[in-house]
Design brief:
This protein has about 325 residues and is α/β, with parallel strands linked by helices. It is built from 9 helices and 15 strands. The chain has 2 domains: about 1-120 and about 265-320, Quinone Oxidoreductase, Chain A, domain 1 (Alpha-Beta Complex), CATH 3.90.180.10; about 135-260, NAD(P)-binding Rossmann-like Domain (Rossmann fold, 3-Layer(aba) Sandwich), CATH 3.40.50.720. The strands form 3 sheets. Strands 3, 4, 5, 6, 7, 14 and 15 form a 7-stranded mixed beta sheet that branches. β8 (about 140-145), α3 (about 150-160) and β9 form a beta-alpha-beta unit.
């Protein structure tokens, strides 16, 4: 089969297309024939070596397709079933493995492309808005990168919960997308200081929660916008990791809460994974919009990473084997 392999860390050129054997299925595992793979920033971190992995390896944890073969101990799935996962193994390929407990069945209303575009970022947006800081009517939320894959979904979910959403974006095109997703106010951080703009809109220290997937360039100012006992949710680092900081900043800015969550900790059990996924699929059937920015052939994975890192995308990027 064709797979993308990383032998050395570095730039997008390190993503090399090779012919490799189809993986052997083990106990509790399922072999999936992939129809679409989601491209995510975590794979950029793996490629760069920020999250080290034994090399060579095939990146990619989010994909959708059909069950090709089930391993010993898997009794509830069969060949031909339509499935998806956000925690698979080696998804930049034509076939990949996943633990049966990490797979979800796809309803007929959800295409493979939508599943691969929704699952990881949708589950992330779900736990952020439903569990990490459970939004309710009247809350004010600041969503950074509001036109990104997570940002567009998070904005829509926040509006479903009755929150007021302020979004930051880099271009007028992205501002239009954030507004379409329901953002009440959109700030172009390339044209001014986003913190000053937020204060003009809602006042000083009036934000209940900051959802920050950008990291280094937004973190410090985000703390200054929160109300007393407000929450900063740092769930990504697209601009670079946040360096060490003095925890006294949290007390000086109003006894703030800071959390650095991961999806794995919010899908620890299969019932939790299934519950979140079923609600996402229900919302998708009711109009939750999943924006697929563009799709690349599997062999062009390097071009997909270049587009993602260059912030040239609005929504999801897919690889199609």
């Amino acid at each position: 089969m064709l797979a993308i392999r990383i032998h050395e860390t570095g730039g997008p050129e390190r993503l090399v297309a090779e012919e490799v054997p189809i993986p052997e299925v083990g106990p509790g595992q399922v072999l999936v024939k992939i129809a679409a793979t989601g491209v995510n920033f975590v794979e950029v971190y793996h490629r760069l070596g920020l999250y080290p992995r034994p090399r060579p390896f095939t990146p990619g944890g989010e994909f959708a397709g059909t069950v090709e073969k089930v391993g010993p101990g898997v009794g509830w799935l069969k060949p031909g079933d339509r499935v998806a996962t956000a925690a698979g193994i080696g998804g930049y390929a034509q076939y990949a493995l996943a633990g049966a407990e990490q797979l979800v069945l796809l309803p007929d209303s959800i295409s493979f492309e939508i599943a691969a575009g929704l699952l990881l970022q949708g589950l992330t947006a779900h736990y952020l808005a439903v569990s990490t800081f459970p939004l309710k009517g009247g809350d004010t939320a600041l969503v950074h990168a509001a036109a990104g894959g997570v940002g567009l979904l998070l904005t829509q979910i926040a509006k479903r919960k009755g929150a007021r959403v302020l979004g930051t974006v880099s271009t007028a095109e992205k501002a239009a997308l954030a507004r379409q997703a329901g953002a009440d106010h959109v700030i172009l951080y390339t044209q001014g200081d986003f913190a000053e703009e937020v204060e003009k809109l809602v006042g000083k220290r009036a934000v209940d929660v900051v959802y920050d997937g950008v990291g280094q360039t937004t973190f410090a100012k985000g703390l200054t916008l929160l109300r007393p006992r407000g929450t900063l949710v740092l769930f990504g680092q697209s601009s670079g990791p946040v360096g060490p900081f003095d925890p006294q900043l949290l007390s000086r800015n109003g006894s703030l809460f800071l959390t650095r969550p991961t999806l794995g900790d919010y899908t620890l059990t299969r019932p939790e994974l299934v519950s979140r996924t079923e609600e996402l699929f229900s919302w998708a059937a009711q109009g939750l919009s999943v924006r697929i920015d563009r799709s690349f052939p599997l062999a062009d994975a390097a071009a997909a990473h270049t587009a993602l890192e260059g912030r040239a995308t609005t929504g999801k990027v897919l690889l199609i084997p």
